[in-house]
Amino acid sequence: MMGPAHSLSGAAAWLGVGAAAAGLGHPMPWPTVLVGALICAGAALAPDLDHQAATISRAFGPLSRALCKIVDGLAHATYKATRKKGDPRRAGGHRTLTHTWLWAVLVGGGFSAAAVYGGRWAVLVILFIHMVLAVEGLLWRQARMSSDVLVWLLGATSAWMLADVLDDPGNGKDWLFTQPGQHYLWIGLPIVLGSLVHCIGDALTVSGCPVLWPIPIGRRRWYPVGPPKFMRFRAGSWVEIKVLTPVFFVVGGGCALGALGVIG
Predict the structure, then answer these.
(1) pTM (2 decimals)?
(2) Which of 70, 88, 169, 251 is deepest in the core (most CB within 10 A)?
(3) In this structure, which long-range contacts are made by residues 232-239, counting pairs with CB atoms below 8 Å and at least 24 apart in sequence?
(4) d(Cα 162, Cα 155) in Å, to the nearest integer?
């Protein structure tokens, strides 16, 4: 799928988690619902770090372009080192390492650890990164028409304001993990979820997605998981734009009402 659909599906997924948590009697404070949805929307773009033409490669200027080259090389090297006889040879690393459950868990766990041990400044950096990505994904038309500096200023301002809101007692920095020293431990969850939602979205397309790596399936370790081929579509096709995108809007809106306790 393309960037906007990935981001929108990520936001809808976190709102679904919020609705489920409310239904189970453990509702999120509204700042956690909002911040988690934005982080998940941004994280849903992150697996395309292995693609030098993706939205995320442009998000942070030369820094993100250089990072994409490094990740692409790492992903390609990992593919070559771990592929089985049934896996085809390939020239790049797109839709390999960063499109797996293991990558999602490692990245989410790393960000959680950074938030817990790095304090407020680490939280601000995490929020800034994902706010910028959320703007690039959810408001992609406006982002394309604006300068990168304006997008970065919006991301930085949003990160600072949201961190202040979360820091107020009862506003969500200790949601789910309530013991001393566990503040913001939850912040890796929307990052893991966003990455997995991205993989599921790509699995629906013609190429599929090797989300189960390194678990081997038959003669392949990089098996492109997906539905039957007649149910798949090309990225950016009418199915994505005319069908899935409206569904993400409706489902996300309904889940938001459930997460905030408006409907039960």
Answers:
(1) 0.94
(2) 251
(3) 232/204, 232/205, 232/206, 232/208, 233/204, 233/205, 233/206, 234/205, 234/206, 235/1, 235/2, 235/202, 235/205, 236/1, 236/2
(4) 10
DSSP string computed for 4-26? HHHHHHHHHHHHHHHHHHHHTT-
Q: Is the peptide bond before 214 cis (omega within 30 degrees of 0)?
A: yes
List the one residue out of 48, 53, 86 whose CA is nearest residue 199.
Answer: 48
| Amino acid at position 213, single letter | W
Task: Please write the tens of the pLDDT for every residue from 19-72.
Answer: 999 998 888 999 999 999 999 999 999 999 998 888 888 889 999 999 999 999
Structure tokens at 123: 């939280």
**Contact of 209 with 224, CB cutoff 8 Å:** yes
